[in-house]
Amino acid sequence: MSNQYLVAALYKFVHLSDFADLRAPLLAFCEARDVRGTLLLAEEGINGTIAGPEQGIRAVLAHLRQDPRLASLEHKESWADSQPFYRMKVKLKREIVTMGVPNIHAATMAGQYVRPEDWNELIDDPDVVVVDTRNDYEVSIGTFAGAVNPKTASFTEFPEWVKEQSREGGVLHGKARIAMFCTGGIRCEKSTAYLRTQGFDNVYHLEGGILKYLETVPEENSRWNGQCFVFDERVSVGHGLRQGEYTFCRACRMPLSLADRESPMYEEGVSCPSCHGKHTEEQLQRFRERQKQVLLARARRQRHIGVRAQQKAQPGPDAPAGAEAAVESRVAARH
């Protein structure tokens, strides 16, 4: 693995009153060790995805855990064949995952953790409502069998969905037990905390998220169907966290399957079945010129970085940290 990059996804809800003061030293520490990605700091905690040489990542994690408030910080690891991020960013935010509802204290109000080894038994119970808290485009490529898809475009839409579905006739109305899951666990910390403020007492969430489940539970025992969307150039992973078949549409950033890429509506770097017919002729010309430069850079075995300035779209506010860097890296030649 000497030629691979270690990717670490981390988060922790904890009160950081001095979070603004942590930014500059943390950025300098990461850059000095050739670690890249994005870390978000807020009064409610830290959230991030970083990648780099193994020694550098281990050093950053140790540095963070030297702070007594972050001593119990957990992270999830995977490997990439090349650096999935262009640069290192440490950003100051109001929330480390944006729900937009004040006074949701996930550090103290989150629901009950369920270990990946115990998750199947919980969701197999017909009296348990299983909810996928991710956005619709993430759910579209994989989810747990029988899970409810709220069909949200952003995590900020989730509270309204809960209110609607709590009314008579809704999927949450009169339900005593609700199980929630997301990619790495961070959204579920907030979503279960929010449900508790709405009067739901028996709320559970998958500890470590889908990624930990796919890493831990043998495929033959799994209730997972499809792939898990991730916010970096791997695009998707499956059981054992093996990289999946999906790529990104460079025009709209939607994940593309092999079938999508065989569609007559797909033009590499220009359009896909999700965005075909939605761009102006001027945009299409710009996309084609960008793709031409990408192919030229690829032929030179270089990454096409110059197109970053053209990318104005941002990931959803609920995306794990690192998604903004992924927006930049998605337009580069695939590694």
TrEMBL record:
Transmembrane segments: none
Keyword tRNA processing: yes
PROSITE patterns linked: RHODANESE_3
Catalytic activity: uridine(34) in tRNA + AH2 + O2 = 5-hydroxyuridine(34) in tRNA + A + H2O
Biased composition (Low complexity): 309-335
Molecular function terms, GO-annotated: oxidoreductase activity, acting on paired donors, with incorporation or reduction of molecular oxygen
All residue ranges annotated as the Rhodanese domain in the record: 124-222
One Pfam family named in its UniProt record: UPF0176_N
One record GO biological process: tRNA modification
Annotated region (Disordered), positions in chain: 302-335
Family annotation (Gene3D superfamilies): 3.30.70.100, Rhodanese-like domain
Keyword tRNA processing: yes
InterPro entries per record: Rhodanese-like_dom, Rhodanese-like_dom_sf, TrhO, TRHO_N
Catalytic activity, EC: 1.14.-.-
Keywords of this entry: Oxidoreductase, tRNA processing
Task performed by this protein: Catalyzes oxygen-dependent 5-hydroxyuridine (ho5U) modification at position 34 in tRNAs.
Similarity section: Belongs to the TrhO family.
Protein name (database record): tRNA uridine(34) hydroxylase
